[in-house]
Write a structure and sequence with these properties.
heterodimer, A: mainly beta, 4-stranded antiparallel sheet, B: mainly beta
């Protein structure tokens, strides 16, 4: 398919476990974004990559959150020592140009539940 | 800081009714404005957008006009269908930033 894909679609973790969430952007897209969507809320920005460079990580809620995009395509969001408040849907989006004003295309999200 | 406020849901209408979902924003500078839609079981999709004052975005019978004087971007549709049932998010992005700022979303339920 030509869209943004994310895996896994669902993840259940015990409190304290580490998790890794994967995003495959649309091929050739320069920009990649991660958002966190709590239940009943709108998505909130976490971090932004332009190719392999992480240009903005101002939305990461704590140092337990880490994201990478080493080759400028696939990205991984890692959460260490998960807490219950990390339970949310994690959305990935990509856009073809640098910066944020180009249309961002969203993946289906990964629903993380921390018990 | 920059923010988006939209009417709380759920909104329940009968098929063929007129729809308005209110959205106002606070932003420095001149943001671009968006409506995104999230259908059940699907990812967020861009519904329409407007990049400058007085622009009208439209798609699938939905319209929204960028009103700088009232800092609003209300979503309207003249005759809704059951298939329009979804969660609608108003959003903005500023020209000095790279992230989309979303409202909390409005769940729309259309009865046949």
């Amino acid at each position: 398919g030509a869209g943004v894909s994310q895996s896994p679609r669902y993840k259940v973790a015990k409190r304290g476990q580490d998790v890794a969430l994967r995003c495959d952007p649309i091929s050739g897209h320069v920009s990649l974004f991660w958002y966190q969507q709590a239940l009943g809320q709108g998505p909130e920005f976490l971090t932004y990559f332009q190719n392999e460079a992480q240009l903005d990580k101002s939305g990461l809620p704590s140092d337990r959150f880490f994201a990478e995009r080493p080759e400028g395509s696939v990205s991984t969001l890692k959460i260490q020592r998960t807490q219950q408040e990390d339970s949310a849907v994690y959305l990935c989006a990509s856009s073809s140009l640098a910066g944020g004003e180009d249309t961002q295309y969203f993946g289906p999200g990964t629903r993380l539940t921390v018990l | 800081g920059d923010s988006v406020t939209q009417m709380e849901g759920p909104v329940t209408l009968s098929e063929e009714a007129f729809l308005t979902i209110n959205c106002t924003y606070t932003a420095t500078g001149y943001p671009s404005l968006f409506w995104y839609v999230q259908y059940p079981g699907e990812g967020l999709q861009l519904l329409l957008k407007a990049t400058k004052a007085d622009d009208k975005g439209s798609n699938k019978g939905f319209e929204a006009t960028y009103r700088k004087e009232t800092t609003s971007f209300h979503l309207e549709k003249g005759s809704v269908q059951v298939s329009d049932s979804a969660v609608y998010f108003c959003a903005l992005i500023t020209n000095r930033d790279d992230k989309i700022i979303f409202g909390k979303g409005t769940r729309l339920h259309i009865l046949p």
